């Protein structure tokens, strides 16, 4: 198979290099013909033909219009050149084959852009420099010319073409050195002269180097970048002066591969060997065979042609020392490298020039978002649009210039200003999109929560008119602001729901409790006065009950629009009242399903049983039970009438049982919910729910103005507002309650969906009272 041929060819090449056992006479002969058998077998060629082509070559001559082929026997030196030329040709062509195969394997069907990395030997200056250093330095000279053409020269020419005010920077253009090496005629370059000398060499190459030196002195001796001495010559490269020793120049350049050898390899029985030599002998037979120098020159020019099609970026490497150790800095060496790499001129051009340039159209497209006039597209002249953008960010006029078709920006900081402003604009728009999306997602989530909560009571319980479309807030107490309540909850437990509710005991006496729901438990937190100790007499929070979610047996509700619900647990039940019962039950149902993988049992009946807690006064104590009965009444306010072991609750009809939330009402009440939630957090005991508040204010009598002086202007008449009258006096029991007297008249500014009233005390402190006025007599 083909993958085996390269290894086979390399073995044949090594064998070939050991074949010639040359006799001292002038004519090359082979002592042992058997040594050719194995190389001939590996290369797939005839042994006799291999011997013939290694020791002789066919030369064509023309006499009077007639052509004649002469078989010329090679001397020892010529035979060695022929052998080495064939071995080198095989090595080079197999190497090219491998590279080409790898490239084809990595090639894609469609390539629009590509990135190439060129890593070559740097400039070489040794004590003794020969033909190899000459070729390497020539390639570096060509690459330096590209650097000058594409950076220093091209940049300054661009400023002139665009009409930019500019101070020219002097720099050394090494094109004159490249011409000195590679020119063909007028005057011929060093490589051309070298090829001529190698072509005229006869049987013996002795003295060819001196002949080359003499010709160089004759044809380019007066060149300003060329000097010679008795054993070599000096070239003034861009990196400095380099002296080259002439010894072996012609011998190393003679990489002659005659057509006889190509014809020999094309006669191989192996297809792979044939494919390595695709030359057309009928066309390529004319002309001089190529040399090592001519190949280097061709490859260098091909490389330059490839690089000129790209946009190169240069990485300049500086070698600080020869010891390859840290903290070893040879200043003279570094200074020399900085000088011959042209960094000084490059920095001078960069400093005096402009760091950024872009055609007007692309500049407008990139930064159009900065102003409304340019977004989404500029309607006027492109140059005026660019000027408008630069002025909109208050860029200093000395930091930019406008050419004929491009804008030039001097300092990178000025460009960074544009980029930062652009990023800020995109960031602002991105945040607006995020906000809109999150708002949409939150609305969708809350609508889903409302629908799920509504489905719990759908066709089972009547709904209140002003609560069915209410937004869900969750934490109506503001647990983060109340560490005295948070202490009873686990440190990492999430607060799903928190509200101050009313709890009824075995005598149906109402008392306030803070109801807290987490993913694991339900907490009921109350307050008691400390009876002993240093905090005696102070009111402290006390955990009254803790129920695990999975231990809830069921929840009982009536079929009417009241806010009463019963939590049934194994030990005893809790009779509670909350205006946010639907939200609480919805969240409790989700947590219960997560814990038990089942639905929360909800029971609906107008006669409910409440199991009481066992008393601790003796072994004969029993909890017993109480009954809650619901009857049809009038109005939206529940009227509670306890009688022995039965609590009778009457309330008027509400919305039909099949009522569901509507999106229109949800959007209308959204503006009130956020405001009400923010105001509810400071008031722990009685936070107002979402919806419109009922603001109330105590009336005060108008005092006459003091005598003397200019009387005060008459106050504007107060607007007529509804009023209510307190039926009895009440003394505040906590810091968030308000004391008032019987028969106090209170103005009702607004009526809301709940029965919490905000009042203003004498000292302008805001308090909240619950069901204290005449319309809400039965709720107190």
TrEMBL record:
Residues 461-653 form the TH1 domain. Residues 719-780 form the SH3 domain. InterPro entries: Kinesin_motor_dom_sf, Myosin_head_motor_dom-like, Myosin_TH1, P-loop_NTPase, SH3-like_dom_sf, SH3_domain. The chain crosses the membrane at residues 26-45. Residues 703-720 have a biased composition (Pro residues). Residues 664-680 have a biased composition (Polar residues). Residues 300-322 are annotated as: Actin-binding. Residues 1-423 form the Myosin motor domain. Keywords: Actin-binding, ATP-binding, Membrane, Motor protein, Myosin, Nucleotide-binding, SH3 domain, Transmembrane, Transmembrane helix. GO terms for molecular function: actin filament binding; ATP binding; microfilament motor activity. Signal peptide: none annotated. It comes from the Eukaryota. GO terms for cellular component: cytoplasm; microvillus; myosin complex; plasma membrane. Pfam families: Myosin_head, Myosin_TH1, SH3_1. GO terms for biological process: actin filament organization; endocytosis; glomerulus development. Residues 650-721 are annotated as: Disordered. Belongs to the TRAFAC class myosin-kinesin ATPase superfamily. Myosin family. This is Myosin IE. It comes from Meleagris gallopavo (Wild turkey). The lineage of its organism: Eukaryota, Metazoa, Chordata, Craniata, Vertebrata. The gene is MYO1E.
